[in-house]
Amino acid sequence: MHPAGLAAAAAGTPRLRKWPSKRRIPVSQPGMADPHQLFDDTSSAQSRGYGAQRAPGSLGYPSASASPQAAFLADPVSNMAMAYGSSLAAQGKELVDKNIDRFIPVTKLKYYFAVDTMYVGKKLGLLFFPYLHQDWEVQYQQDTPVAPRFDVNAPDLYIPAMAFITYILVAGLALGTQDRFSPDLLGLQASSALAWLTLEVLAILLSLYLVTVNTDLTTIDLVAFLGYKYVGMIGGVLMGLLFGKIGYYLVLGWCCASIFVFMIRTLRLKILAEAAAEGVPVRGARNQLRMYLTMAVAAAQPLLMYWLTFHLVR
């Protein structure tokens, strides 16, 4: 073709515009981050991790790893050590119990505290009104005395212990109303009461030994019987605080007479066991000494009741 024709054809044909080439971005593979995303998407990773930790039969919750304690207990050496330690602890407890029972009869003490509310009410009535009581025999079951809650004649330590504590508190109240209260004086009051109780028990045990009395009266029984006088002492001091000297002497006199009768009727079955068993008084010097001993123990209770309370009422 003629060159002029080629030029004219080229001039009449529209000219194509050249666009810049676009760079193809490869499709992100799983696990690769999207370049247009501002923050990393961690939901898929967590879901994959959550699903990986899920154990069959765990109801959708991750299974807890074994604890160090479980791993320790699974060790046979540790199991043997634990068994050996348990046996040593049991032997030590048994040894301690034997030594405690040798000096402090814990098993016997449980008997003296086996009381209930009904027994306490009946016993207090018996201490204030012993004249109305007829049967003073202690009940036995297979050569063993029944618990105090089943027999009002049985001695107990609950009432004497509570009465002693209450007596100390009432003494502090009486001293306080007279502006004479001090911790030293209250401690002296408590130590004096304990000292007199200890002297009473030792004197009675010595007398029983010298008179050669075969009786089932134990030391704990003596402490229980001698501790009942604190009930009357509390009544006398309280009436003295409310009504003065007249109320003190009236109530204390009644309580002294009641405790005297109570001790006579109770101890005669313990100390005069031979005469009580036969039903008639046994004549003889030994039996006369037993009677005198019973009367002396009963007569000492009103004297001590007055001695330990007269200075608390003015």
TrEMBL record:
Pfam short name (any one): YIF1
InterPro entries: Yif1_fam
Keyword presence, Thylakoid: no
One BP annotation, GO: protein targeting to membrane
Alphabetical UniProt keywords: Endoplasmic reticulum, Golgi apparatus, Membrane, Protein transport, Transmembrane, Transmembrane helix, Transport
Compartment(s): Endoplasmic reticulum membrane; Golgi apparatus membrane
Region of interest called Disordered, as start-end residue ranges on this chain: 1-58
GO-annotated cellular components: COPII-coated ER to Golgi transport vesicle; endoplasmic reticulum membrane; endoplasmic reticulum-Golgi intermediate compartment; Golgi membrane
Membrane topology: Multi-pass membrane protein
Transmembrane region(s): 157-176, 188-210, 222-242, 248-268, 289-308
Compositional bias of kind Basic residues: 15-25
Principal location class: endoplasmic reticulum
Low complexity bias (residue ranges): 1-12
Free-text function comment from the UniProt entry: Has a role in transport between endoplasmic reticulum and Golgi.
Family: Belongs to the YIF1 family.
Name of the protein: Protein YIF1
Organism: Microcebus murinus (Gray mouse lemur)
